[in-house]
Every structure is written in structure tokens, then in C-alpha cells.
């Protein structure tokens, strides 16, 4: 067991050190994502691939400190540059704080060895106060009655499953290495490794997500979505070009990875527009009338990053999950023995 | 006499011109034929359509159509290991894809292979949905897609959603060991040659326990032999396990059905009870 644990830590440190290296090279070169990006995108014309598609190829990161929804105490749409930099600095300082020796966090992330401050990885300076751009208040629209009912049912179903460490199925999908928020879709950043590689060939755009090596090979040939009964984790996706913008429409979700309470009927539209040599504007619209009173949209800048992507063999090295559950069962056993002793006395 | 001499000379000149004009092209064609045939190994001299950079275009969805996934060596049909699955989990008979006799294991490695086979139900990494490694990924009974550009050739596999990146111009040594290895590629005429190292020792070649160490070195050759067929050849080298390098080869076929695509085979979910089931909290405890 000790060996397994040591190996887990070593693996983790190695991963962190690799990303740390990438991070240092990328070295804080913050480029500003124009808050009102429309103006710039018109002026910029993306290079073309040999078959004439706007060229989105390369390694990109969507790392950000900007929350999906606008914080409660904020009313404006945009920060000033100074305010935005201050927020990044404070958030980075919190992430760099030394963990307390002997705590779970300290075992998982030894910050004295390698920083896990996401600002180091290179990120676009986003002046927006929320990723959500529509509605204008930066908040997810209210749930419909059906959406509320589903949320309640899901919470009850979750309770019936028991505690988080009672069974592997009670753990989050990302901890189980099934799917991560980076993959989505929609694709949103997590704490680290928010890296993507885009490769284009005639008829397809391929997006490789570093986390769990998740791939979407999006067909551009105008084919229909999969038949309605075929439901997948990442749905069924088809794409087309609208001028400079790659539009990807996804349906056929399986409902096992709801996004902000969505149903399996959600229809997602993503738009990728290269607005400068080193920035892609990623926009998405969630349309799910059975969940929200109206569709809503968000926008995230993706900044050019330094590759290559490394193999993220998540499930294969998932000692943490095994040890979490094994630890919980050891605690159960200890508690049962304690109780037995108490009654025998 | 004079006339005869002139005519004679003209005849020879004409004949020489004729010879020169035909012999040279015939020779060139013959030499090229030999060259192309030699470069493509067993392959007939088929010339694949080109991609934008002038290289053979291997884009598409491909799949092996053989039984190597069960055992890369020739084998007779055999019962499966799960009684309840009956004929559905039986081992289908196959000719094998290994060339030139049995796999040349070192004695200790041969014993290890035998043990792997006997304990395959608990040791085979495929059963746990672990990344398949190379070459195993190439002949599992699922399709994979090649996405080919000048700089990168990507391969996306159905099984475990595995991915290979083949670096075509930025050749590097493997930065760390990995499940799918680190692949550098180049073109030799009609053939894509992929050199892969940097493997860990966790993957197998098949369900029969054929295995390798972290010293594995795979050199693959992909050659289009018709619009919908590739010849796949791989030389396997591993001085810790085998007495000499050995070779496997097989055709890969294009999935031609309308709307063919790599679908989501996210098998982690299917193996959780197998791997973590004994750690489920017992009721009343």
C-alpha cells in the first residue's frame, strides 16, 4: 500500500512538474482578450488550411479565473484592466498558499515543490466579470418548473446512493476518470491542464482534450446527428463553417453528465472564431427548454499555448480513487470494531 | 555502292535512334517498378491519392478484420473464460499475424507469457479498460480514425478512446514512458514509417498474454494497397523479452459505410464494479 501511495505521489508530482515546465516557458505572457471582441475579429482574417478552412490548428488553453456566473456583489459587465490583473494576482496567491502539513490537500498537492497557480500557464486576460454574456445580468436563467422538479429528483436520488465514499459510483465523474469539464462539451477550464490541440483535415476538425485524452472528430460533411435513441457522453456533434466561424451543434447527450442541471435534451451550439494569431473566441449557447426559461450563452477566450500535449492516462493511474474507497472501508472496520468492544465491556 | 553505303548508314542511325528512344524509357520504368515494389515490400505498386502536401492520403476510418486481438499467433477456436457467456465469449480461430514462426521469446519470458495466459482473466489490461498500447490498438475489433496533416498524424481509437500522436517533423525522444508510446514518423515513398518508443511495461499484445517490457521498440509501415485497404507491417524489438526482432503484418480495411464515425466507447464506467466493487460499503456495516 505504501508503495502504491508513493507511486501515486510521484506520478502526480511528475505531472505537476511537467505542467510547471510548460507553465514557466509560457511565462505569464497575458494577452488581452478584447472584451468587445467583435470589432477585432472583423479586422483579422485567419490563415487558411490547404483545403481552405480558416486555420484553427495548434495547441490552445482556456484557463481562466473568470467565473461562469457574475459574482453577487458585481453589477458591471467588464472590469478595468487593473481590476482584472488584481483579481488574477489575488487568486494566484491563494492557489500558491502553502498547504498545511498532514492535511489531505498537502498529500495531494505539495505546493512547496511545484506551484499549481493557473495564471502561470499563460491565459488570456479576460475583462469580463462572467463567462455568461447572455442574459445581460451574467446569470443562468431561472429553471422551468420541469427543471426544478428534475433538480429535486436528482438531489433525492443522490441522497439514496449514500455517502460520497460508499461506492465508486458516488464519486464525481472527473475523479472516476470518466469525463472532465475540460472536455464538456461545452469545454470549460479546470484547475490545471486546460490544454487542447486542434487538427484539421478536409471534412473534419479534430479537437483533442489533454485531460483523459478525450477526442471529438467533428464531421463537416452535412451529415445528420445520430438517431435519437443513440445517446453518448459527449453527444452527437456535427459542424459547419459560417464565414470565419466553425459552428458545432451537439445533441443526443446521455443525461449522465448534466451541465448546470441540464437534461439529456439539451442542444449545444459552439462557435470557434480565430480573432488573432494567438486567440480563438469560443462561444457556446445552451438551449434546453425543459430546463431553463430561455437559452443562454457564454464566451471564453482560448489562448495559444505551448505543446506538445502529454498522455493523460487518468484511469490507469487512478490510485487516489482506490485509496479513497479503501480508506473509507478501513474506517468502517475500525468503527465496527470499536463498537463491538464497547458492547462487550 | 555509294548509295548502298548511305542507305546502310541511315538504317543504322535510325535503328540507333529508335533504340535510344525506347530503351531508356523502358529501363527507367523497369528501375522505377523495381524501386516501388521493393519499397512497398509485398505490396503491389498502387499509388494512393495525395494529400495537400503531396504525400499518400491515409485519412479515413480503418479497422483490422482478423482474430489477432484474441491471439496474434495462429490459434484454433477455444472456449471463453466466462461460463455464463457461452459461445458469445468463445475465442474465434485465426491464422495469426506473426510472420516466420513462433514469437522468439527468451526462456524466462516464455514462462512469463504462459503465466499471463493462465491468469489472463485477472491480468489482461483490456479487461480493466486500460490503454491498449502499440501495436495492440491497431488490431482490436473496433475502428480507428487517421487524421493526417503534414506536421501531425493523429490516430483516434474506439477502444478506451485511446489516441496516438505521430510527430512528422518535430522528432523527439520520448519525454516519459507512457501507455501509447511516443511516435515519430516519416515518409518513405508510398509508405508511412512510424518509430515508437517510450512505452511502459503495462500493455500486452493480445488476450493470450503475449507481452513486452519497457524496452519495446516498434517500427510500423503503413502502405495503401488499394483505395480501401492498407498494408500494416510492424517490426517488434525488445531485447529484454525476445531473442531477436520479429515482424507482424495484416491488412487494414476502410470503413466505407455512410456516416461512419468513431463512437463513444468510454469503457471505464463498465469496469468500475470489477476494479472497485469490493470497496463498496456493505449495508449495516
Structure description:
The complex is a heterodimer of chains A (345) and B (285). Chain A has 345 residues and is an alpha+beta fold. Chain A is 27% helix and 21% strand. Chain A has helices at residues 2-26, 38-43, 81-96, 104-108, 145-160, 319-344; strands spanning 31-33, 58-61, 124-126, 132-134, 195-201, 204-209, 214-219, 236-242, 245-251, 267-276, 279-287, 296-304. In chain A, the strands form 2 sheets. In chain A, strands 2, 4, 5, 6, 7, 8, 9, 10, 11 and 12 form a 10-stranded antiparallel β-sheet that branches. A two-stranded parallel ribbon of chain A has the order 1-3. In chain A, a hairpin with a 4-residue loop joins strand 6 (204-209) and strand 7 (214-219). Chain A starts with a helix and ends with a helix. With 285 residues, chain B is of the alpha+beta class. Chain B folds into 2 domains: 1-39; 60-78 and 89-274, no CATH class. Chain B has 4 helices and 9 strands; from the N terminus they run αβααββββββββα. Chain B has a 9-stranded mixed barrel. The longest helix of chain B is centred in the N-terminal third of the chain and has 38 residues, at 2-39. In chain B, 33% of the residues are buried. Classes of the chains: A alpha+beta (345), B alpha+beta (285). At the A-B interface, strand 5, strand 6, strand 7 and helix 6 of A face strand 2, strand 3, strand 4 and helix 4 of B.
Secondary-structure topology with pairs:
The complex is a heterodimer of chains A (345) and B (285).
Chain A: H1 2-26, E1 31-33, H2 38-43, E2 58-61, H3 81-96, H4 104-108, E3 124-126, E4 132-134, H5 145-160, E5 195-201, E6 204-209, E7 214-219, E8 236-242, E9 245-251, E10 267-276, E11 279-287, E12 296-304, H6 319-344
Parallel strand pairs in A: 1-3
Antiparallel strand pairs in A: 2-5, 2-12, 4-12, 5-6, 6-7, 8-9, 9-10, 10-11, 11-12
Chain B: H1 2-39, E1 60-64, H2 107-118, H3 120-123, E2 144-148, E3 152-157, E4 163-167, E5 182-188, E6 191-197, E7 217-226, E8 229-237, E9 246-254, H4 268-276
Parallel strand pairs in B: 4-5
Antiparallel strand pairs in B: 1-2, 1-9, 2-3, 3-4, 5-6, 6-7, 7-8, 8-9
Amino acid at each position: 500500500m505504501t508503495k502504491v501511495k508513493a507511486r501515486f505521489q510521484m506520478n502526480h508530482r511528475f505531472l505537476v512538474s511537467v505542467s510547471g515546465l510548460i507553465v514557466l516557458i509560457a511565462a505569464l505572457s497575458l494577452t488581452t482578450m478584447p472584451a468587445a471582441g467583435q470589432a477585432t475579429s472583423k479586422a483579422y482574417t485567419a490563415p487558411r488550411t490547404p483545403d481552405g478552412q480558416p486555420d484553427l490548428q495548434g495547441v490552445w488553453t482556456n484557463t481562466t479565473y473568470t467565473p461562469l456566473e457574475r459574482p453577487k456583489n458585481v453589477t458591471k459587465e467588464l472590469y478595468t484592466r487593473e481590476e482584472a490583473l488584481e483579481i488574477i494576482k489575488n487568486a494566484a496567491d491563494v492557489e500558491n498558499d502553502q498547504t498545511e502539513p498532514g492535511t489531505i490537500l498537502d498529500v495531494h498537492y505539495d505546493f512547496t515543490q511545484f506551484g499549481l497557480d493557473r495564471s502561470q500557464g499563460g491565459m488570456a486576460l479576460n475583462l469580463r466579470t462572467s463567462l455568461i454574456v447572455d442574459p445581460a445580468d451574467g446569470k443562468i436563467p431561472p429553471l422551468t418548473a420541469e427543471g426544478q422538479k428534475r433538480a429535486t429528483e436528482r438531489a433525492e436520488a443522490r441522497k439514496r446512493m449514500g455517502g460520497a465514499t460508499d461506492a465508486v459510483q458516488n464519486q464525481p465523474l472527473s475523479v472516476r476518470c470518466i469525463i472532465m469539464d475540460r472536455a464538456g462539451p461545452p469545454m470549460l477550464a479546470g484547475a490545471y491542464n486546460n490544454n487542447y490541440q486542434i487538427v484539421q483535415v478536409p471534412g473534419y476538425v479534430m479537437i483533442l482534450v489533454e485531460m483523459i485524452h478525450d477526442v471529438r472528430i467533428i464531421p463537416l460533411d452535412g451529415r445528420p446527428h445520430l438517431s435519437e435513441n443513440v445517446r453518448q457522453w459527449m453527444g452527437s456533434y456535427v459542424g459547419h463553417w459560417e464565414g470565419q466561424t466553425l459552428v458545432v451543434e451537439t445533441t443526443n447527450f446521455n443525461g449522465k453528465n448534466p451541465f448546470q442541471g441540464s437534461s439529456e435534451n439539451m442542444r449545444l451550439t459552439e462557435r470557434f472564431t480565430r480573432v488573432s494569431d494567438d486567440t480563438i473566441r469560443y462561444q457556446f449557447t445552451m438551449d434546453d427548454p425543459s430546463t431553463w426559461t430561455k437559452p443562454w450563452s457564454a464566451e471564453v477566450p482560448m489562448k495559444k499555448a505551448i505543446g506538445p500535449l502529454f498522455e493523460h492516462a487518468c484511469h490507469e493511474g487512478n490510485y487516489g480513487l482506490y485509496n479513497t474507497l479503501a480508506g473509507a472501508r478501513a474506517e468502517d472496520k475500525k468503527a465496527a470494531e470499536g463498537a463491538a468492544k464497547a458492547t462487550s465491556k | 555502292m555509294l548509295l548502298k553505303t548511305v542507305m546502310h548508314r541511315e538504317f543504322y542511325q535510325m535503328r540507333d535512334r529508335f533504340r535510344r528512344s525506347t530503351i531508356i524509357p523502358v529501363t527507367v520504368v523497369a528501375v522505377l517498378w523495381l524501386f516501388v515494389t521493393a519499397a512497398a515490400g509485398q505490396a503491389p505498386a498502387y499509388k494512393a491519392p495525395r494529400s495537400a502536401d503531396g504525400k499518400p492520403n491515409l485519412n479515413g476510418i480503418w479497422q483490422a478484420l482478423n482474430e489477432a486481438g484474441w491471439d496474434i499467433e495462429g490459434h484454433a477456436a477455444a472456449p471463453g473464460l466466462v461460463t455464463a457467456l457461452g459461445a458469445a465469449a468463445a475465442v474465434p480461430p485465426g491464422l495469426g499475424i506473426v510472420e516466420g514462426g513462433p514469437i522468439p521469446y527468451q526462456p524466462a519470458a516464455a514462462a512469463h507469457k504462459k503465466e499471463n495466459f493462465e491468469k489472463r482473466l485477472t491480468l489482461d489490461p483490456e479487461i480493466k479498460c486500460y490503454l491498449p498500447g502499440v501495436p495492440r490498438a491497431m488490431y482490436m475489433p473496433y475502428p480507428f480514425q487517421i487524421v493526417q496533416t503534414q506536421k501531425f498524424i493523429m490516430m483516434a481509437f474506439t477502444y478506451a478512446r485511446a489516441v496516438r500522436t505521430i510527430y512528422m517533423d518535430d522528432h523527439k525522444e520520448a519525454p516519459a514512458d507512457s501507455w501509447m508510446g511516443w511516435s515519430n514518423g516519416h515518409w518513405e515513398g508510398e509508405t508511412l514509417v512510424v518509430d515508437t518508443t517510450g512505452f511502459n511495461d503495462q500493455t500486452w499484445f493480445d488476450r493470450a498474454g503475449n507481452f513486452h517490457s519497457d524496452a519495446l521498440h516498434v517500427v510500423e509501415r503503413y502502405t495503401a494497397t488499394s483505395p480501401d485497404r492498407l498494408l500494416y507491417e510492424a517490426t517488434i524489438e525488445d531485447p529484454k523479452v525476445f531473442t531477436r526482432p520479429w515482424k507482424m503484418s495484416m491488412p487494414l480495411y476502410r470503413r466505407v459505410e455512410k456516416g461512419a464515425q468513431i463512437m463513444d466507447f468510454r469503457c471505464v464506467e463498465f469496469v468500475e464494479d470489477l476494479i472497485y466493487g469490493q470497496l463498496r460499503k456493505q449495508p449495516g456495516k
